[in-house]
Design a protein that fits this description.
The protein has twelve helices and four strands; from the N terminus they run ααβααβααβααβαααα. It has 248 residues and is of the alpha+beta class. Strands 1-2-4-3 form a four-stranded antiparallel beta sheet. The protein is globular and about 60 Å long.
């Protein structure tokens, strides 16, 4: 097992995997880490679909164009889930408020699922496995993937996570310096512009000199272009069709 320090500070996204299977013991560790995730009010407003069937993985790959989905050993799909609480509320004749139709409800479900995914990442990485978080699971074809996974109403996909034995070890990607991420007591803009300029140049240098495929991408323009492309995803309509028709 890796140390906590190495697990957290040496993590990188792995997109190529060996065919080697993951032991039941290791997967149980990941499941238990997920199960023990801190959630809002202990509501546990999330569920996870563990996709191991190769045909299903390839169908999701066809919808998302993310090759690591079909080559990983386990593909976990993390979902916000208010279906479970509605089932027990109905069984106990408890009137259910439409909390999932509020922005806070959407945030609660998303945060719970995201925290669960990070629990899985840490557990998997500590066991020497590689992981890759895949947002396209949510955005590329949300209705088709939801139908494929047989998701009930009042659930929606937050993110996917590929897990497997690493076949690569890419260079560690630079992250923003602590001064840009951690603020003391209040948000501070002192020096933020220059720090962002320096970080932008660092990313550009990393992309131009890293092992493997090289690009001329900087950070700022690359991210803004992604935002521009992502505006076509219409995620609000997608979650509304899943039962999260936000009214407040």
């Amino acid at each position: 097992m890796k140390t906590v320090k190495d697990t957290l500070l040496q993590r990188r996204s792995i997109r190529r995997y060996e065919r080697e299977p993951i032991s039941e013991e290791t997967m149980n560790l990941i499941y238990e880490a997920i199960r023990n995730t801190p959630t809002s009010y202990n509501g546990q407003q999330f569920s996870v679909i563990d996709v191991t069937d190769q045909e299903m993985k390839e169908k999701i790959y066809e919808l998302t164009s993310q090759k690591q989905i079909k080559t990983c050993n386990h593909f976990l799909v993390f979902c916000a889930d208010f279906h479970k609480i509605k089932v027990i509320a109905e069984e106990k004749n408890i009137e259910f408020p439409e909390f999932q139709k509020t922005l806070d409800g959407v945030i609660v479900g998303t945060v719970d699922a995201a925290l669960a995914m990070m629990s899985a990442v840490v557990a998997a990485e500590s066991a020497g496995l590689g992981t890759c978080c895949i947002g396209y699971t949510r955005t590329a074809a949300p209705e088709e993937v939801s139908r494929l996974l047989n998701l009930p109403q009042d659930t929606y996909i937050v993110c996917g996570l590929a897990i497997g034995v690493p076949r690569e070890m890419p260079d560690l990607k630079p992250k923003q310096p602590i001064g840009l991420v951690i603020h003391s007591n209040t948000y501070s803009e002192d020096g933020i512009k220059q720090a962002l300029i320096d970080y932008d140049k660092e990313i550009e240098h990393y992309n131009a000199t890293r092992a493997g495929d090289k690009t001329t991408n900087d950070w700022a323009a690359h991210m803004v272009n992604y935002y521009r492309m992502a505006m076509s995803y219409n995620m609000l309509d997608a979650v509304r069709r899943r039962g999260f028709d936000v009214i407040s």
